[in-house]
Write a structure and sequence with these properties.
The protein has two domains: 1-29; 31-125, no CATH class. Helix 2 packs across helix 6. It is mainly alpha-helical. Helices cover 52% and strands 0% of the residues.
Length: 137
């Protein structure tokens, strides 16, 4: 009986350690804020401008608003364009605009998850309530 309890405790510990280590490897993407900034400013703001024709900057939203928007992955609720944010950070999208956008061409080989992490870091760290609000000038 005692060996069964010991075996189960050891098995539980092994499962716990595996899940923690697995999560660490799965989320081990080091974001490059500078690449995120270049992509955001050259690709995202090519379409996203306010009524005055000024590019929409990260400083237009709070950190919580950026996190909620990017985590929800809903770019266009109207479905007039591709409805996900991740699509506009994908290699497929970059491939489709590479001939008219230098940043898309430059970052064509960057994996989708990496570019998402880069833009995420730039937008959140550039939010209006961050230490370094970012504009798109």
């Amino acid at each position: 009986m005692r060996s069964s309890k010991l075996f189960l405790a050891g098995l539980s510990l092994a499962v716990l350690l595996f899940s923690v280590v697995g999560d660490a490897f799965a989320t081990d993407i080091k974001a490059n804020k500078k690449r995120g900034q270049v992509y955001y400013r050259m690709v995202c703001t090519a379409c996203h401008v306010d009524m005055a024709g000024t590019a929409i900057s990260p400083a237009g939203r709070s950190m919580a608003e950026w996190r909620a928007y990017l985590d929800a992955d809903k770019h266009d609720a109207s479905a007039k364009t591709n409805p996900t944010v991740r699509y506009y950070l994908s290699q497929a999208y970059r491939e489709s605009i590479k001939d008219r956008n230098k940043a898309a061409k430059k970052f064509l080989a960057v994996p989708d998850d990496q570019l998402y992490a880069d833009v995420y870091q730039f937008a959140v760290n550039g939010a209006k309530d961050s230490d370094t609000p970012a504009t798109c000038k």
